[in-house]
């Protein structure tokens, strides 16, 4: 046994080429979640496209990514090889968890993918349009129960924004948080709640099968091939997407940042990455550089306002 | 083509030698990673998924099924032999299984777990193939109030696992309930009992707790008996294989476990642990040897293990028919399916029958491979316990911490292991049972959340908790489970009095 | 744990001090819960069972159990404890603590190797200069397998960096 182990160590040491890891990507979540999948897909694509020789993925799970970002900001300062995956959920989690480390403490590179929110009702529901739902909400906010993901997450934020846009007190919404997309979907299908709100992808196959009725989506323009109005054209000024991004370490030089940015420009255009997004069902909402930084600042500001309105952040 | 033809075709494809080899490789890999405590089936599948991408569609689907079942099964081996449950669904297995292993009956315990898993997997996979659309309709009727009633029932029946002292059993349960409060409150997003520590915001990880309470607490306790204490572990006593009596006591438990586990797994918020709890309680109630429970009763391994595997197949019901991932493992599987061009949902059986039946055939083959791999290994596994004490326990701790580090390499998590290990040691010294802590930690938040959801939906109307027929039915069963034993005991006393009166005549 | 130092033989008709300590711990736990949840806001208030309600029930349950424990302590209802040896426990706790503190600076293999050696020592195998190096080599192999086969990076230190 001992011989075997020694032999395998030697063999392994010799088999590994002697170059250093090019990028190490932190997924601030446990293996398997959305961020982890993004990190591991990036790993595969960056290596396959020869943008990077060897990419490592590290998982630091906990508290909506706030544990990961804190560790990333403190330990990787100035390291041009360190990357971190993150997303919109982190924006809310940083606020609700009162995290001392925020997205200002890392260097955002690019928004990679995103998913729009969809508002649905069971097919048997008497609510036919988003207008019906808003009318019911105005009449008695408590009587409209919304099923969605965890409290303070994207679904909850979107619900608050809708109520606010409709002129209803966001603290009065009857939002029922479920522990996962699956559980929420089951409650909606079983007509346990009035309406459901979650990423469009979660509902897509149910909508196609006719067991859920899609009332509206939260995108800027109508989604291609989807027969539903946007919230905006329904006179509710709400545009929100649950995006995922990649960020670099704080304290890197402008050249280092530009180099990373160039690598991701290359990745975005590559066939491998496009193919990955297609098989995973991720929408390409790529946005990089100053445009992304501006959008990020906007997202953070609007999220803070609505979380205060709902009462989740003081 | 009819359902049956598709299945036969899938089976024929899966039986090709190359595909059988893929199944074997998948099962082996899945078992190897799945045995690590703290790394449950979800993580196992997530980590090994890329391995399958190298193969063609059929081959990768088969290997994937193998990894899934291997990961599910891996946890029970360590539960039984080392008292370190690999995931929350095999915690109950440790209760009786490890007692059996210590009494030299590790062989039969492992065998009944393997065969029980196979039987349950077989029945449940077939049920998945033929009654999934029907089951899923029932599962959707379950809303928050029905789940709350189910949790009440689980609390009451599981109290049979609380040991002999009511005071100490309840104290353990309440310690578990108190610990379950730690972290972000699901429904309002506020943190409770986290004291500003970010690592506590996600609450206390059940697997960390189980490893600390069982493996570390136990190791400390045994060490504290001193080197002079006689070695209480006997690796093999009697046959390594199941005796006729073992078979007789196991087969009904397997079937009952399957019957309990499958529907609960199919419920979107059921959870595999609940099935194992209920199965354990049922076996204890029905057993002809209730006195053996807590000392190594084979039914207590056979039932929960079957329930665990049946519920794993049960989770596939909402996943395939509705596209509903109802557990972390199911969410990973969904990601895997997408890789194979399989889009789970209500239309899947209609639009993509070949792939679905290919998957179901793969699951059946993987299930068989699991048995083929594990039964011959039973003898070898049991030898693990003949390792001298210092190396055995040092190995257990290495292994226990490895799982935790693999899932979350944080100093804080290791600190929790140490702290709860010490608490568990203290509890053992003072005769407090360990299992209720875990029961409270798992069931507490579920019960609380469902109650609050039900009341929020009804806008505070308490009567909704009793007005649904299913909820009312479950609550009545729970009430009976609580009252009937009391009546029987009272009447039993009456019988004794009558006998005494009669003998005086 | 300080609890273990209490004498294991309880004399008759005298309260079981260890049990009283346990009751006190339960009371403190209940107090901490009640104090912590008192600051929670009842958001969304459509359910009368808010974020602080169930913790309250649990806390009152703990208080009830504490009282019951005190009664049991005075009635001598607690089981007789077996004699505990402190030394082996200290060895193992030291091993776990060492692993926890060393895993960041020194990496998985050295930290876990020390845990292995100290635990074995707790069970009587005291030749640390043999057990620790062997354990470190085994852990290094485990680290390598995790990193290559599962692409899961366990914490790396000087030894692991040699392999990278």
TrEMBL record, chain A:
InterPro entries: BUG, Bug_dom1
Organism: Rhizobium deserti
Pfam assignment, any one: TctC
Taxonomy of the source species: Bacteria, Pseudomonadati, Pseudomonadota, Alphaproteobacteria, Hyphomicrobiales
Keywords of the record: Signal
Keyword flag 4Fe-4S: no
Keyword Manganese (UniProt): no
Origin: domain of life: Bacteria
Signal peptide: 1-20
Protein family: Belongs to the UPF0065 (bug) family.
Protein name: Tripartite tricarboxylate transporter substrate binding protein
From TrEMBL, chain B:
Record flagged with keyword Cell cycle: no
Highest classification ranks of the organism: Bacteria, Pseudomonadati, Pseudomonadota, Alphaproteobacteria, Hyphomicrobiales
Alphabetized Pfam families for the sequence: TctA
Record PANTHER family: TRICARBOXYLIC TRANSPORT PROTEIN
Keyword set, alphabetical order: Membrane, Transmembrane, Transmembrane helix
TM segment ranges: 20-49, 61-82, 109-135, 147-163, 169-187, 316-335, 355-379, 391-411, 417-443, 464-488
InterPro entries on file: DUF112_TM
Keyword Protein biosynthesis found: no
Annotated protein name in UniProt: Tripartite tricarboxylate transporter permease
Residues annotated as domain DUF112: 20-438
TrEMBL record, chain C:
Annotated ranges, domain DUF1468: 21-155
Stretches that traverse the bilayer: 17-37, 57-74, 108-125, 132-154
InterPro entries: DUF1468
Keyword annotations from UniProtKB, A to Z: Membrane, Transmembrane, Transmembrane helix
Keyword Metal-binding attributed: no
Protein name stated in the entry: Tripartite tricarboxylate transporter TctB family protein
Lineage: Bacteria, Pseudomonadati, Pseudomonadota, Alphaproteobacteria, Hyphomicrobiales
């Amino acid at each position: 046994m001992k011989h075997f182990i020694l032999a395998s160590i030697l063999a392994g040491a010799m088999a590994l080429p002697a170059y250093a890891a090019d990028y190490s990507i932190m997924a601030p979540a446990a293996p398997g979640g959305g961020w982890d999948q993004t990190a591991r897909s990036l790993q595969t694509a960056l290596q396959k496209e020869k943008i990077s020789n060897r990419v490592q993925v590290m998982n630091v799970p906990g508290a909506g990514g706030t544990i990961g970002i804190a560790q990333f900001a403190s330990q990787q300062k100035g390291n041009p090889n360190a990357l971190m995956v993150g997303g919109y959920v982190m924006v809310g989690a940083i606020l609700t968890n009162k995290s001392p480390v925020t997205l200002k403490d890392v260097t955002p590179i690019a928004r990679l993918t995103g998913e729009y929110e969809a508002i649905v009702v069971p097919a048997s529901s008497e609510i036919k349009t988003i207008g019906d739902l808003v009318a019911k909400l105005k009449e008695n906010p408590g009587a409209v129960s919304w099923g969605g993901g965890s409290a303070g997450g994207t679904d909850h934020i979107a619900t608050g924004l809708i109520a606010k846009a409709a002129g209803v007190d966001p603290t009065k919404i009857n939002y029922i948080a479920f522990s996962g997309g699956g559980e929420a979907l089951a409650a909606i299908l079983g007509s346990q709640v009035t309406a459901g709100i979650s990423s469009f992808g979660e509902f897509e196959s149910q909508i196609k099968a006719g067991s859920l009725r899609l009332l509206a989506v939260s995108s800027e323009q109508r989604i291609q091939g989807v027969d539903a109005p946007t919230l905006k054209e329904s006179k509710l000024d709400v545009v929100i997407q649950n995006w995922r991004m990649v960020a670099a370490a704080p304290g890197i030089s402008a050249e280092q940042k530009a180099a990373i940015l160039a690598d991701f420009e290359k990745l975005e255009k590559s066939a491998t990455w496009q193919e990955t997004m297609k098989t995973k069902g991720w929408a390409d909402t790529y946005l990089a550089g100053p445009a992304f930084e501006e959008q990020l600042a906007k997202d953070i500001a609007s999220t803070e306002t609505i979380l205060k309105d709902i009462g989740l952040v003081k | 083509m009819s359902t049956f033809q598709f299945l036969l075709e899938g089976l024929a494809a899966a039986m090709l030698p190359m595909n059988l080899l893929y199944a074997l490789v998948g099962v082996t890999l899945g078992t190897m990673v799945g045995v690590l405590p703290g790394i449950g089936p979800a993580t196992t599948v997530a980590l090994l998924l890329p391995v399958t991408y190298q193969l063609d569609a059929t081959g990768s689907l088969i290997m994937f099924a193998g990894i899934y079942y291997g990961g599910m099964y891996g946890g029970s081996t360590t539960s039984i032999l080392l008292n370190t449950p690999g995931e929350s669904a095999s915690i109950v297995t440790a209760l009786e299984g490890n007692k059996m292993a210590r009494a030299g009956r590790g062989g039969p315990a492992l065998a009944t777990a393997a065969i029980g898993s196979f039987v349950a997997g077989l029945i449940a996979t077939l049920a998945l193939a033929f009654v999934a659309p029907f089951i899923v309709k029932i599962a959707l009727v379950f809303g928050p109030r029905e789940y709350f009633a189910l949790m009440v029932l689980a609390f009451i029946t599981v109290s049979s696992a609380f040991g002999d002292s009511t005071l100490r059993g309840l104290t353990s349960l309440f310690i578990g309930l108190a610990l379950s409060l730690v972290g972000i409150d699901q429904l309002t997003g506020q943190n409770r009992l986290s004291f500003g520590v970010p690592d506590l915001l996600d609450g206390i990880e059940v697997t960390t707790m189980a490893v600390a309470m069982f493996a570390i607490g136990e190791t400390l306790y045994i060490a504290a008996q001193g080197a002079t204490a006689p070695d209480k572990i006997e690796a093999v006593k009697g046959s390594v294989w199941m005796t006729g009596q073992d078979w007789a006591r196991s087969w009904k438990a397997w079937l009952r476990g399957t019957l309990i586990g499958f529907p609960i797994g199919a419920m979107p918020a059921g959870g595999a642990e609940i099935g194992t709890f209920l199965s354990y309680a049922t076996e204890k109630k029905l057993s002809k040897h209730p006195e053996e429970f807590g000392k190594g009763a084979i039914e207590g391994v056979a039932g929960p293990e079957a329930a665990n595997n049946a519920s794993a197949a049960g989770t596939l019901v909402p996943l395939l028919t509705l596209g509903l991932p109802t557990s972390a493992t199911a969410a990973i599987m969904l990601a895997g399916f997408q890789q194979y061009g399989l889009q789970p949902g209500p239309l899947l059986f209609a639009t993509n029958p070949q792939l679905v039946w290919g998957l179901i055939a793969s699951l059946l083959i993987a299930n068989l491979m699991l048995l083929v791999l594990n039964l011959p290994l039973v003898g070898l596994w049991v030898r693990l316990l003949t390792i001298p004490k210092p190396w055995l326990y040092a190995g257990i701790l290495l292994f226990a911490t490895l799982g935790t580090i693999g899932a979350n390499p944080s100093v804080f998590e290791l600190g929790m292991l140490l702290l709860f290990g010490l608490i568990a040691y203290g509890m053992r010294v003072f005769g407090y049972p360990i299992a209720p802590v875990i029961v409270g930690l798992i069931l507490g938040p579920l019960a609380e959340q469902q109650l609050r959801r039900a009341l929020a939906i009804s806008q505070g109307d308490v009567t909704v908790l009793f007005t649904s027929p299913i909820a009312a039915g479950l609550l009545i069963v729970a009430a009976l489970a609580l009252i009937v034993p009391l009546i029987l005991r009272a009447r039993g006393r009456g019988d004794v009095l009558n006998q005494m009166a009669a003998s005086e005549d | 744990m300080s609890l273990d130092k209490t004498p294991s033989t309880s004399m008759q008709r005298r309260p079981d001090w260890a049990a009283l300590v346990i009751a006190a711990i339960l009371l403190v736990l209940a107090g901490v819960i009640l104090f912590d949840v008192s600051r929670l806001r009842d958001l969304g208030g459509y359910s009368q069972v808010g974020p602080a309600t169930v913790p309250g029930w649990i806390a009152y349950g703990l208080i009830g159990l504490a009282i019951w424990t005190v009664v049991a302590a005075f009635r001598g209802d607690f089981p007789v404890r077996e004699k505990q040896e402190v030394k082996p426990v200290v060895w193992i706790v030291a091993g776990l603590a060492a692993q926890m503190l060393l895993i960041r600076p020194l990496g998985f293999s050295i930290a876990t190797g020390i845990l292995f050696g100290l635990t074995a020592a707790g069970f009587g195998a005291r030749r640390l200069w043999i057990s620790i190096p062997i354990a470190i080599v085994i852990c290094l192999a485990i680290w390598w397998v995790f990193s290559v086969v599962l692409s899961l990076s366990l914490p790396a230190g000087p030894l692991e960096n040699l392999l990278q």
